[in-house]
Amino acid sequence: MKNWFKKNIIWLVPVTGTIIIIFYFLSSFNFGKISQDLVQAYSDKELYRKAIEMANKEERVIKVVVRIKSIDRMAIFNGEVNYFSDFQKVTSTIKVHGDKGKAKLDIKAHLKNDEWRYDLLQVRIDNSTGETQAIEIYQ
After folding, report:
1. Residue 21: which residues within 8 A CB-CB, separation 6 or more?
2. Please, which residues bridge with residue 121 across strands?
3. Widest CA span in the chain
4. Which one, of 139, 136, 98, lies nearest residue 118 by Cα?
5. DSSP β-ladder status, 115-126 and 89-97
6. Residue 101, helix vs strand vs coil
């Protein structure tokens, strides 16, 4: 009777090699930074709350999407977020929903005196013809 290693060598070598390759690619693509950025965005409620509040004051957004509903936490994980300069600057895109449809909220912001200041805040809406309408919102 063969031991376990001898019986499974055909599967053990390729599986081990594949796992090593996956870890190599994850580490080379800054997977740690991506995870860190997502965790920071998930915990930074004020960044998104204030952005949605400002978007809901914009009449052009209200006409197309109505009022944007507050986001759920999975919207951040499904979106894109990048922090820079020791978490003092951020760019982010998340999906948002309103009564009339869906859109994307683009944010570029920086922290000043522990408060987010928006350099770019826009709502992008895909219409039925496939064109994207961007509504810029200024602070």
Report:
1. none
2. 107
3. 77
4. 139
5. unpaired
6. coil
In terms of Cα–Cα distance, which of 133, 46, 57, 28 is closest to 92? 46
Q: Which two tokens stand for residue 105?
A: 């909220």
Pure H helices in 29-139? 31-43, 45-55, 59-65, 73-78
Q: How many residues make up the chain in this entry?
A: 139
pLDDT digits (tens, 9 = 90+) for 79-130: 888 888 888 999 999 998 888 888 899 999 999 998 999 999 999 887 666 7
> In this structure, are residues 107 and 117 in contact, taking their beta carbons and an 8 Å threshold?
no
The one-letter amino acid at 78:
N
Say what the pTM is.
0.70
Determine the Cα–Cα distance for residues 64 and 126; give it in Å rounded to an integer. Answer: 10
CB atoms closer than 10 angstroms to residue 52: 21
